[in-house]
């Protein structure tokens, strides 16, 4: 009797014809070193080149349009475009259907990014940015050290830091992740940790932006976000994995 684990049989390629054509077209873009604005062959030309039906070619092209790699115009035909890297993430950012492990990953990613933006912020901040940050913190409650944070104040302050960074992709990324942040906060997944006298407030951060250094600001941001690290998902009885949802 033949035992399955002893047989030397290659796995069957289960990818569809459209999958293969899509992959082949992407390989074409890379091998030909095509750039945004370059025209790709027409549907009938691709049909002849790849030996598949026009229906298959059209479906594969539609997939590439969906992920933002190509676009069709009346005059030029189908051309390469610079894709919006965050487009698909934006479409799938529905917090209520994300499991806790993914929500936690997103929250941690946000914290890591905000600690790492210090050099960009210091190299691009202007006096009017300082004034706007000061106006934002003036609206915050004086007892901020006794609570974890207010979501609107949090978004206003940190959103301004993303803006100061001058990095459009970072700004777009933050706006895409905001629904997840709000969902985590509104769902009471974050519990305020014990009071920490070493905690750095938004007002403290503004003072460092005025008179400090990138390294000092980076360390201060770590302390500012420390209770976020300590406080998130405290109401879960145990660590969640994606398989548990």
Quick recap:
This protein is mainly alpha-helical.
State the helix count: 11
Beta strands, count = 2
Number of domains: 2
- Measured as a percent range, the helix fraction is 55-70%
Describe the structure in your own words.
This protein has eleven helices and two strands; from the N terminus they run αααββαααααααα. With 245 residues, it is mainly alpha-helical. The chain has two domains: 17-80, Arc Repressor Mutant, subunit A (Orthogonal Bundle); 88-244, Up-down Bundle (Four Helix Bundle (Hemerythrin (Met), subunit A)). Strands 1-2 form a two-stranded antiparallel ribbon. α2 (43-50) crosses α3 (54-66) and α10 (202-211) runs antiparallel to α11 (214-231).
Attribute tags:
57% helix; mainly alpha; disordered C terminus; Arc Repressor Mutant, subunit A; 245 residues
Question: What is the topological layout?
Answer:
Elements: H1 17-31, H2 43-50, H3 54-66, E1 70-73, E2 77-80, H4 87-92, H5 100-116, H6 118-124, H7 127-138, H8 151-165, H9 168-186, H10 202-211, H11 214-231
Antiparallel strand pairs: 1-2
Helix pairs in contact: 1-3, 2-3, 5-9, 5-11, 6-8, 6-11, 7-8, 7-10, 8-9, 10-11
């Amino acid at each position: 009797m033949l035992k399955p684990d002893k047989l030397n049989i290659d796995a069957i390629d289960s990818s569809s014809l459209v999958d293969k054509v899509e992959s082949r077209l992407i390989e074409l873009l890379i091998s030909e070193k095509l750039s945004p604005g370059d025209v790709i062959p027409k549907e009938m030309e691709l049909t002849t080149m790849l030996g598949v039906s026009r229906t298959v070619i059209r479906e594969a092209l539609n997939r590439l349009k969906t992920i933002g790699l190509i676009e069709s115009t009346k005059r030029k035909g189908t051309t390469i475009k610079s894709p919006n890297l965050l487009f698909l993430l934006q479409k799938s950012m529905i917090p209520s259907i994300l499991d806790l492990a993914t929500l936690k990953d997103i929250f941690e990613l946000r914290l890591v990014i905000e600690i790492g933006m210090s050099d960009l912020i210091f190299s691009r901040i202007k006096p009017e940015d300082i004034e706007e940050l000061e106006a934002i913190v003036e609206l915050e409650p004086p007892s901020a050290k006794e609570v974890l944070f207010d979501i609107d104040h949090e978004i206003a302050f940190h959103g301004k830091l993303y803006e100061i960074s001058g990095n459009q992709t970072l700004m777009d990324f933050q706006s895409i992740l905001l629904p997840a942040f709000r969902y985590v906060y509104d769902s009471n997944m974050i519990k305020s940790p014990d009071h920490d006298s070493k905690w750095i407030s938004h007002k403290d951060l503004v003072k460092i932006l005025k008179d400090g250094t990138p390294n000092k600001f980076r360390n201060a941001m770590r302390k500012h976000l420390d209770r976020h690290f300590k406080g998130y998902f405290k109401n879960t009885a145990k660590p969640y994995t994606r398989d548990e949802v």
